[in-house]
Design a protein that fits this description.
Strand content: 15-25%
Helix content: 25-40%
Number of strands: 20
CATH topology of the largest domain: Rossmann fold
Keywords: ATP-binding, Cell membrane, Membrane, Nucleotide-binding, Repeat, Sugar transport, Translocase, Transport
Strand order of the largest sheet: 6-7-8-3-9-10
GO molecular function, one term: ATP binding
Organism: Ideonella azotifigens
Number of domains: 2
Pfam families: ABC_tran
Structural class: alpha/beta
Oligomer: single chain
Bound molecules: adenosine-5'-triphosphate, magnesium ion
Largest sheet: 6 strands, mixed
Number of helices: 18
Domain ABC transporter: 4-240, 239-495
Shape: globular
């Protein structure tokens, strides 16, 4: 059992102060939800608690004793393990190697005990419900599977305080249930859990208490039961929130078709999918993880091998061989995997934003001033919270990285945008801002495609929703027929 307290914790990155003296304490053996808007400082505070970052000033106490961690191994030795929001896994290593990275098991004589590591890895994989050979390399896994490897890794370290930074952002409902069961089991065994999430329904279900942060400050700690979801949201943003979804504006029935896809097949993932989206229309794609939604669009964009009867943008037949080529033809794509494919996290904010559209800024040479102005505009329009414009993308908070990725695909003024999980990890206030932006984009005549695992989002946002099941487009539901029950029934084939 482990009780933790923060005393006047301050963190500054250079001139930018992000934590302004945070003090609160946690009791052992409970599950806490940590809430706050994007950029509130949740991840930063938890990185300090787990030895990944050093506080600028202030104190951390474990069971009443002041502690100072030089690195994450120190913290792990004290029983504190962080599961990162942005995965911290080595793509070229196997699952077993990742699980034991830095904690390798050795035989007498100092040789690595691969057999023991593989065996224990298999055991923790079973606990998290990931049915994969421990020798599989990370790069072969899909995002949700990588998340489960992160959780397995934490279990193998026998955490007494387990910090989970948005662990369910990429999980299916079934995997989420399994994770919750696991959390309840860990709690019963005396583990304290800190759970960061923007999904308030989950926070309501799984946590005993919530801690709310706002703008780098501690706001309150309260029993989860004592707060409604709306109250939680209001505490996070410090004001009353209006309706999450803006009113839908139906496009005129004679609006031109922006994108038409006929008989698109992606071997192993999708078969003969045909669909179209008109100017002003927001078309959703629903389906279970593995139904082939992401893969279908990766095929369309030339990221996977695929074949199509015909693809048209504004009535012109096109062949899209890469996202770059697609962007030149007016179709831009936001990947669900923002770290892997969406952003170049090691590059600056400006470079990220203008990369898609480099040619516009390179007439005849790169216009630095225009680039900076575009970044300033995007930061304002998308409400990206950043202390400075000259940061690297990796130093933005998770939700703010997502907003930057979105700004990046909307920047060139596309005819069609495909957004894969656009609001993943985005706080409730910012979600609404993104929905307003998506509506505005449609109103300007863009055809918008939104792939989402949040049914409420598809229902609130879209004019029509196409449902995929096992690689096939099974149906398309009009706005007036959209309900969670209907979407689930079509996605699982039980209608
Ligand atoms: N290395 C860094 N350099 C500069 N600023 C940073 C760095 N790391 C984080 N920040 C800033 O600190 C602030 C808090 O970020 P943090 O990641 O803690 O937010 P968060 O509450 O986890 O948000 P989210 O819900 O989006 O994940 C952000 O404004 C972020 O840009
Ligand atoms: Mg975060």
């Amino acid at each position: 059992m482990l009780a933790l307290s923060f005393q006047d914790v301050v963190k500054a990155f250079g001139p930018v102060q992000v934590l302004h003296g945070v003090s609160f304490s946690l009791d052992a053996g409970r599950i806490y939800g940590l809430l706050g808007e994007n950029g509130a400082g949740k991840s930063t505070l938890m990185k300090i608690a787990s030895g990944y970052e050093a506080a600028t000033s202030g104190q951390l106490c474990l069971d009443g004793q002041p502690v100072r961690f030089a690195n994450s191994r120190d913290a792990e030795a004290a029983g504190i393990v962080l599961i990162h929001q942005e995965f911290n896994l080595a793509e070229d290593l196997t699952i077993a190697q990742n699980i034991f990275l830095g904690h390798e098991k050795k035989k007498r004589g100092g040789w690595l005990d691969d057999a023991a590591m593989r065996r224990e890895a298999a055991a923790v994989l079973q606990r998290v419900g990931l049915d994969r050979d421990p020798d599989t390399r990370l790069r072969q896994l899909i995002v949700a599977e990588k998340q489960l490897v992160e959780i397995a890794k934490a279990l193998a370290r026998n955490a007494r305080l387990l910090i989970m930074d948005e662990p369910t952002a990429t999980l299916t409902p079934g995997e989420t249930e399994r994770l919750f069961a696991l959390m309840a089991q860990l709690k019963a065994g005396g583990t304290t859990i800190l759970y960061i999430s923007h999904k308030l329904d989950e926070v309501e279900r799984i946590t005993d208490e919530v801690v709310v942060m706002r703008d780098g400050r501690f706001i309150t700690r309260a029993a989860t039961r004592s707060l409604s979801r709306a109250q939680m949201a209001n505490l996070m943003v410090g004001r009353e929130l209006s309706d999450l979804f803006p009113a839908k504006q139906l496009p005129p029935t004679d609006a031109p078709v922006r994108l038409r896809v006929q008989d698109l097949s992606v071997p192993g993932w999708a078969e003969q999918a045909s669909f179209e989206v008109r100017a002003g229309e927001i078309l959703g794609f629903a389906g279970l993880v593995g139904a082939g939604r992401t893969e279908l669009f990766e095929g369309l964009l030339g990221l996977r091998s695929s074949s199509a009867g015909r693809v048209e943008i504004d009535g012109q037949a096109v062949a899209l061989r890469s996202p770059r080529e697609a962007a030149d033809l007016g179709l831009t794509y936001l990947s669900e995997d923002r770290k892997g494919k969406g952003l170049h996290v090691a590059m600056g904010l400006t470079e990220n934003l203008t990369l898609m559209n480099l040619r516009q800024y390179a007439k005849p040479w790169l216009r630095k001033d225009q680039e900076r102005q575009a970044l300033g505009d995007a930061v304002r329009e998308f409400g990206i919270r950043t202390g400075s414009l000259s940061l690297r993308a990796s130093s933005l908070s998770g939700g703010n990285q997502q907003k930057l990725a979105l700004a990046k695909v909307l920047q060139p003024g596309p005819k069609v945008v495909v957004l894969d999980e656009p609001t993943r990890g985005v706080d409730v206030g910012a979600k609404r801002d993104l929905y307003v932006l998506i509506h505005r984009l449609a109103a300007q005549g863009c055809g918008v495609i939104v792939i989402s695992s949040e049914l409420i989002e598809l229902i609130g946002l879209c004019h029509r929703v196409a449902v995929m099941r096992a690689g096939r487009l099974t149906t398309t539901l009009q706005a007036d027929r959209l309900s969670e029950e209907a979407l689930i029934a079509h996605a699982t084939g039980t209608h």
